[in-house]
Amino acid sequence: QVTLRESGPALVKPTQTLTLTCTFSGFSLSTSGMCVSWIRQPPGKALEWLALIDWDDDKYYSTSLKTRLTISKDTSKNQVVLTMTNMDPVDTATYYCARIGGGSSNYFDYWGQGTLVTVSS
Amino acid sequence: DIQMTQSPSSLSASVGDRVTITCQASQDISNYLNWYQQKPGKAPKLLIYDASNLETGVPSRFSGSGSGTDFTFTISSLQPEDIATYYCQQYDNLPPFAFGPGTKVDIK
Description:
The complex is a heterodimer. Chain A has strands at 3-7, 11-12, 18-25, 34-41, 48-54, 59-61, 69-74, 79-84, 93-101, 108-111, 115-119. Chain A is mainly β. In chain A, strands 2, 4, 5, 6, 9, 10 and 11 form a seven-stranded mixed β-sheet that branches. Chain A is globular, with a radius of gyration of 14 Å. The mean pLDDT of chain A is 96. In chain B, a hairpin with a 6-residue loop joins strand 4 (33-38) and strand 5. Chain B has no helices and eleven strands. Chain B starts with a strand and ends with a strand. Chain B is mainly beta.
């Protein structure tokens, strides 16, 4: 059974760095083809793809946010960590992690429940 | 980067109606297009992958078609439980990925 769960602070101050952790079970990120992504959704707005890390430790970032994002994995702990620097109130959103389960198709087949991060002083 | 548009942004239909949503990519993405359903307060759920493949367990009233830049998502007979926002997502082989702006579906 595949599950993902996001964790991190609910509130951060402007200019601070956000660190979010995705803890997953039911698959291994060392298995060929497996990937984990971060996706966010501001309140009442659309989904926005942020970053992806794959089984081979290749990392990909949103073009508009790549200077602020870092994604990493700890395969032994079944965790993927996203850091976002210089947080701003416009970064207030629900942050999801999601899995791409291998194969030739890149679709998000399992998602975490999301964690709401509010940026406010 | 590839940009995605969706239309309409919202629609209202009666139970039993056929509902169609379109998604357009800013460049050719072959069939690298997925569709998700999101209900309020919930994470998105995969419905269709690779433009036309129904995810396991998803009702057959949902379908998708298209290739290149133009794609269509259809609910053949709208049900009350289909009230949600629907998003397309392109992947074009490698990231960056992109989601469309979403289509909110309501019952008339």
